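Item description
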Amino acid sequence: MASLRRALAVLLLATGCMPSPYERAAKVDTVEAYRAFLRDYPTHPDTDSAEARVEELEFGEAKRLHTVIAYKRFLEAYPDGPHSRTARTLLEGLRFNAAKEADTEAAWRQFLQEHPDGAQKDEAKRLMAEAQTRELATTQDPQRLAEYLRERPDDPRRMEVETRLDGQAFERARAEGAAKLFAYLKDFPAGTHREEARVLLLELEVEGLLVSGLVDEAEARVKGHPLGAKLTGFPARLARARAERAALARPEPLAQAAHVGHYLRDVEDLRRALLAPDALDRWQAAEELGQHVSVRVLDPLLDALRAARNPLIRQNALESLRTVLAALPRPVAEYEVASRLDALRERASSAEMYLTVAVLLDLSGQLPQASTEYQRAFDAGVPDPVVLRRWVDIRESRKQPFSAAVAARQLAMWALTVAREETVSEEGRVPLASARQLCAAVVNARFAAEAIARARAASTEFPEDLAEFERRAEEARRLAEARLADAELLLREHNPGARTCADRAVSERLEGAVKERSKALETVGAKLPQVGRLLLELAMQRDPSPQVRQVASSRLTALAPVP
């Protein structure tokens, strides 16, 4: 039977009674049928006809759908087919209509990018110019206006656009503060609002002097400045500053106890202490300077950060800068940072200058830009422990424990190198600077070990690496502590009164001052009603301690409102 069926099939095929595979596909006449034919009979003589019919059917489906995506898919499959030109024309029409419906410069620009040689390119260019004119008349985006001026330097509307850009850039700078005002002066050398910008910057400079208690200097600055007369609000602000100074100078012990300055050495004494022979005196001075909420301490602290050899001086200077800038009024802090950045960026060419720029950007909240400058300042061959500590803090704040541990390991290796290389010998006398450098090694080795321990607790990544980091940090800590103990023993043998790395006299005095101020502020409003409110306001606004500011704020809330 099987042989009979085969013979019958051969007979039908020979007599033309059985349809060919192509004829069977053509009878169904679908894309799927033709593709099945092409798959099963790739060498059949009718494959070209099948492929041509598939393209016709695909094009018919694209026309039926009549969408951008349908034509794009067809053209991707048949970029050079007989229907491709028609498909491109239809696609261009759809996109032209979509651009016309949006009727914005961006929509027309996108159309021309997609169809640069299309049949409707000239009409699209005309409509794009009209949309651009409309948008330029109403846009409030300075960047958009600047782009237009760059793209069309010979446009007859250039003067009008420049005037609008000038005005909009100045209004933005006025609203956003000192950094934008400095940028406005730089970007608009012939701007019509340059004098107004300078007046606003002068106002911020003078406000910084006033909040720092430098009332006489502020008054002299305004009187001596050619734009001083334009600070129309200065007389009232000066009167307020004098009242603040008088309140802080009240002789009552309670009034004195409520003010941070009562507990501090004055700024000039601390500036001199920054030059003391003993690094311990210098790092304690840097720490104490951070309690003076004054613009006058910023440059001494920046100098110490940039130039001091001992890392603890530089670390304390960095922390004090953070404290002062956080306690100053925000517009004043932004002015003080922006004015220094404006000068530094013109001449920054060394690692120390790059570090200063990085710190100013960092402390003003511009961390992405600061990160770039930290990298420029960092030399892997001579690692900076202050930068490494900052990287640990930044990476921990970003929830990157392993990356933080990598920086901590580098810090530990720095401490280990110091511990191995600093000279401690009975011959002569151990140099005081070496003992203080070993103190810095101990402090940073402990910091590194604690950071790596936190990373091990928080991260499941690379546990073997973290374990090795921890071993190296522990090795650095043990050696640094041992070498420091040897050095300080020799110091005290020659000078029994020598202070050691553990000396916290200044820190304890500052911590005690926080408690004393908090206690005084609890009662100053009731016991000194004439100046109590003003003292509370000053503490709330300018005290370097968040704890004291909180106490002052709560006591102010509890006071009866001013009638």
Confidence is low (pLDDT under 50) at residues 4-15. DSSP finds 29 helices and no strands in the chain.
